[in-house]
Amino acid sequence: FLYNPRGHAFLRIVAVHVTGDTRVLLEDTSPSTFILHTKHYMHFLPCTHELLWTSERSGYHHLYLYNVPASFHDMNELVGLALTSGPYSRVDMAPCIELRRSVDGGLVCVLEQGDYQPLQDQVQWQPPSRFACPGRDGVTLIFGLVVFPIGYDFETRLRNFRDAGFPDRKLWLESLAVKFPSLDLSTGGVGIYGGSAGGQNAVAGLFHHGDMYSVAVADCGCHDNRVDKLWWNELWMGHPFNNQLYAANANATYAHHMQPHQHLQLTVGMLDANVDPACTFQLVQALIDADKDVDVVVFPKLGHGAGGSAYGTRKRWDFFVRHLQGNEPRHSTTKQTGGGGG
User: Fold this and answer.
1) Exposure string (b/e) for 102-122, b if CB count within 10 Å is 16 or more?
2) Rounded to whole angstroms, how far apart are CA atoms 123 and 101?
3) How far apart are CA 190 and CA 161, in angstroms?
4) Where does the Dipeptidylpeptidase IV N-terminal domain lie (predicted)?
5) Considering the entire predicted model, what is its pTM?
6) Is the pLDDT of residue 11 over 80?
């Protein structure tokens, strides 16, 4: 079985004998933490008694082949690269999967070669555009990308791209506005939206960066990491538990920071089995205690991601139209089609 302790500092494959005795077959350590739910892969090959295992111990995400129960199988590595002269992946290039030798980097064969030219020819699709600019220290580069709508006209001025982040992201957004003048930051407000951890960040953007954000919508946010599930929050907040650190990151702590010109909508699914709805309602109470205005949309029959339902999407759009554009949304009807799984 796979053993991942609190703190996520190492991973172990442990064998259990019928007698109850155990022994460690494999251990992988990390100076920081393991992101087990998205970046780790393991697969046992019963015919050869070998184990495929991913690790970033070399500084790169590589695939290793182990003997079971022995150690490394001649340190064989399978390394995937995108294109012969490019990095591992590129958002602005068609996917290319290659098999290369770890000894000398030589190409064994091309496993798959993608082609997005038909998308460009048939629907005028454009690949994302990469960019980079210095962060708050003036040195460290922050990398980002822009995803353009299909058929985007670079000579057309669009006013609906108003997403940004916090200190570093504010700088790259301003840099992006120089590259794409159609991104207008000079008029109106800037809105921010997120769900789950993104909901927590959307509210934090409103509370801590009021000079940029005037409108925020947060769906099923984990607004206090002490209330949300243990494993995910300790992955980022660390272990052992530090209440002062957690309190300093809880949105309710800063409810009094909300400014008169700002507007906030909170959506929550009462059947949320991922993030406890109490996260949202504790924030609502903190805003009430601070005498701040907040719009709350409750979904009694939906779970995590309830704000992504048809009704939740309309409520979010209407909120931004009302408080960013200054217009009352046109009347519309919404047929509830579900959404927001637990």
Assistant:
1) eeeeeeeeeeeeeeeeeeeee
2) 38
3) 9
4) 6-89
5) 0.57
6) yes
